[in-house]
From TrEMBL:
InterPro entries: C5-Methyltransferase, C5_DNA_meth_AS, C5_MeTfrase, C5_meth_CS, SAM-dependent_MTases_sf. This is Cytosine-specific methyltransferase. The keyword S-adenosyl-L-methionine applies. It catalyses: a 2'-deoxycytidine in DNA + S-adenosyl-L-methionine = a 5-methyl-2'-deoxycytidine in DNA + S-adenosyl-L-homocysteine + H(+). Its EC number is 2.1.1.37. It comes from Sporisorium scitamineum.
Amino acid sequence: MTSTNSTPRKLIETTRTVAKVLSRDFGIRNGYEVVDASPDPASPSSVQEFICNTEASSTLKAFLAQQRGDTAGHVRRTANGALMTLKIGDLVEIQQGTLRTLVLVYKTTRRMLIGFELVWGSTTMLHDVLKSNEIFATYREVSARLATVINRIDPDSVILRFAWDGTRPAFVGLKEWSQHKPPKTREIVYHEGDFVFLQPREKGPLLEIVQVHHIRDQCVDVRYLNRQASQAADFRHDKLLLPAAELVRVDRALFSPLSTCNVSLLPDDASSWTLDSSEFFVTKKDASLLRSECVPCTERQRKARRNVRNQAPLTGMEIMCGAGGLSLGLDLSGSCETKFAIDADIDSIKTFQTHHPNAKVFGCDAGDTLRRAIAGQRSSEGLCLPQRGEVDVISAGPPCQGFSRKNRTAAREAAQEDPRNLLVCTVLGWVEHVQPKYFILENVEGFTASKLGGHEQGMVKLVLKCLLDLGYAATLGYVQSGAFGCPQSRGRFILIASRGNLVLPRLPQPTHHFLGKQATLFSWTDAHGITHTAQRADLTAAMLPAITVHDAINDLPIFDWKDPHQVYAGPDRIELERERRGIKQLEVLSGKATGSQKIEYATEPQNSFQERMRVFIGQAARSVSQHQTAGFGALAVERVVNVALRPGADYDSWSEPDVNKPALLGSFHIERWQQKEFKFERIDGSGYFKVLTTVASVYGSMIHPEQRRIFTVRECARAQGFPDWVEFHASDANLLSAYRQIGNAVPVPLAVALGKSVTAARMRDA
């Protein structure tokens, strides 16, 4: 790598397998150093792994039994002289028209063969970094005439390590692939007493929930359960249902349940983070309208929930943890207990320790810590570093500034120009060193656009290739945080990996309606120049309602910034009217926080989100901390307080008749052209927060919907889903460090969803 900076760069520490991929597959031979002596190669799949009784398992065992383990570097084909003696486990090539297909034979008849399609690495997204003789199993079954077979492939001339599912996309472990069965009809089986989801009757945003009362020959009698949150109520509960008084008869041919769900009596912890998104409740009074449930189905659901609750949490480690949004969400989901964390930022470490007081937190460079761990040394604080067998889950969100689309200097070749971007190699080094069961990587969407070593999507390919060589299955894609109960728009790139002998967790499916754009669909190009796009689940309706700005913050105390009247004398009409209403007008000083470090909530919680924010170990807080803004100069303050009090208003409103203060733009009008973020935009309370940046700024989309100020630290934390009991340590009086930590964090509700995906995969392994 080359550098335009005369200051020597610190070398990135990594391990030998990662360095080998960097050098061999990407041609990058400097900028990093290897801190371990020798790699621990991934074990090839063995026949003993595949013990389930499926067609795929039997076929795979037969194929592996034919291999002698001395895979050659080129593919050997056998001419068709002895092709009529095919047996289970044979790998053949068939030709149908101009199309040639690899088939792993399951069985043959006199004229036909049946098997599973395999594909060359050239059809996957890693086509340009794989060996030419690597093949992958797929979930497609093949039935063809024996006459179409043109070659038998020597099993020792190919490499088969994983299955490829281009619809996700995912590289799946062969053990998981071998357990799959032929796809069945997607028709949902339901019984009298079951609760099911239906598509909304009037194209609404939320799925309908009904209980099946009677199943007749031609029709089904159901009772609709309406959403309590959609009706006027002092407290809007996103999971509380109100059964309709009357039954509705539906033509059985038109009755198409999407899935079943669970409805039970309302418990005290109905806003718990650990609840599944398909769990709903009714009050004891309303339960009298419901019929008895299907006993076998109910017992099966209870057993599944009991098994989840009884599952011991995995031991977690977060690398480059920042404020710890990712590990906090994983822990709140019940899937993990984070016991180790690494970050070099002192403020972030102190924040992390407020919500993980029992974790070992290493306040130093992740690469230096890796070097010490491999050498068997202690950390710079004198703490024992994690070793193999002590960590089940590694989660990480390496610095994203070099990839972020918000960073206008970031180019597509950024990975080779910005040393921060190769820090992912240190994270992968930790994966190689401790060999966790699961690995979760989070970053901005721009991570996938970065080239590396001349390869398109090079950073993604680097991570995937390293993981495959370490024996990990992996899946990846984009997610929209707002679709998981986060009140802001924040698209993220997520990669989840698991050891090859474990079930690979799926990317979480959206749970909440979101008022903004859906997640971008991940796409890639194969060796033939064909672009492929991941499939998306039907998102026409959601299980749970959207979380708006009002939902997130309207229980917090009200205050305005006091107008300094540097440009226009005052007080003005709006200012006096707000003072008469009892709205506090707080003086703002540059460089000093404005507001209350601790203050009682303005109201009781008004919805499930607010209740979830307040509860800590079963107790609801009565006061909130860090409801404070950063302080700014007089001109910036005067500009903010005079933005019109309507959704979406911005600097243009200074010239409108109701405000009539055009001089606020003054000689600074050139800023509109020099700064893309020159907006002074007031957010719509019935909408969502715009993407939070790491800088507390008056220029962007940071002005409160109804108050004359920007968002406080606590309001920004709510936008990211951080509970109120998390305090952000800031060494500066202006709380800029707190804003930075929040802006850098993974939204907590998204991390909770990731944790539940890991739990679901573990249940399939159980």
